[in-house]
Amino acid sequence: MSQGQQRRPSSDQAQADGGGQSQEQGGGAVRYGDVFLAVTGGLAEKPVAPQDAATMQSAENLVFGETIKGGPAATMQSAAMRNERMGVVGHDQATDATAEQGVTVSETCVPGGRIVTEFVAGQVVSQYLAPDGADPARGAAGDDTKMTIGEALEAAGYAAGDRPVEHSDAAAIQAAKVRATGQDVYIPGDLAAQAQSAADANLWAARDEEKAKLGEVLSNATAKLVAHKERNATAKLVADKEVESDDAARVASAETRNKDDKTVRPGGIAASVAAAARLNKQDA
C-alpha cells in the first residue's frame, strides 16, 4: 500500500474553532457532516475551513498529480469558499482536528485497479475504485467464468432469504470484505458495517418480523464503481476478486469463531464462499 504524505497546516495558522465558533452556532455554515455523511462526532459539527481544503488538495496532488474532479478536495474547496464569504472562517484558518491529525490519501492495489481512501482527521470521507483498465470485479485476468467473493455473498443472501442477520454472519461478511478489498478498515455504511449494525439491532428486536434479513443486506454485494460526482458515497464492495481456497478458509474461520457450536452453517456465507472456491478450482 502506498500512502500520500500526511500534511498539516503550520502551527501558526489560526484555528477555525476560535474564529468561527460563535457564528457556527448561528447556523448557515457548511459543516463536515453536511458534505460527508459518513463523518461523525465533533468533526461533523466543524465548518470546513480554507486550509483544510488546501491540505486535502496537496495530498491529492501528491498521490495523483492533480486534484480529483468532484473528489473530497474539490468538495471541501467549495464549502470553504462559501464559509469564507459568510465570514465564518478566515482565509488562513484550519479546524483544530485537521491541524492536529491532518489528512491522508492512501492507495491499495487490488486486481484490476486501486482502492483509493481519503481521510480527514482519521475519518474516511471517500473511498472508491480507480480501475487500471481491467474489469475490477473480475480481477486482472478478467475471466468471467470465475466466481467472485461478491457473487458468493449474493448467492448466500439469496439462499438465506428471510433469515435474520446474526453476528456470525457479520463476522463472515467482514472477513469476506477484507479478502475482496485488501483493506481491514471500518467504513461507515459499507457492506460489513451494514451487517454488523443489522446483527446488533436484531438482538433487540422483539419479533422475527422486525429483524433485518441477510438477503437484504447481501443484495447487490458485488463491486460497484462510484462515479466522480458520487465519490463521497460508500459502495457496498469497492473491489472484488475471484474466490480462492485461502479466502474460503478465512471466511469459515470468522464464521465459526462467532457461532456457539463453532461449526459452519449449512448453506450459509462460509459454505457459499467455499463452494465458489471449489468451482473456481475445478474450472482452472
UniProtKB/TrEMBL annotation:
Record's keyword terms, sorted: Repeat
What residue spans carry the Gly residues bias annotation? 17-28
**Superkingdom to which the source organism belongs:** Eukaryota
**All residue ranges annotated as the SMP domain in the record:** 30-85, 148-204, 232-282
Region annotation (Disordered) ranges:
1-28, 241-266
Pfam families (alphabetical):
SMP
State the similarity comment. Answer: Belongs to the LEA type SMP family.
Q: What is this protein called?
A: SMP domain-containing protein
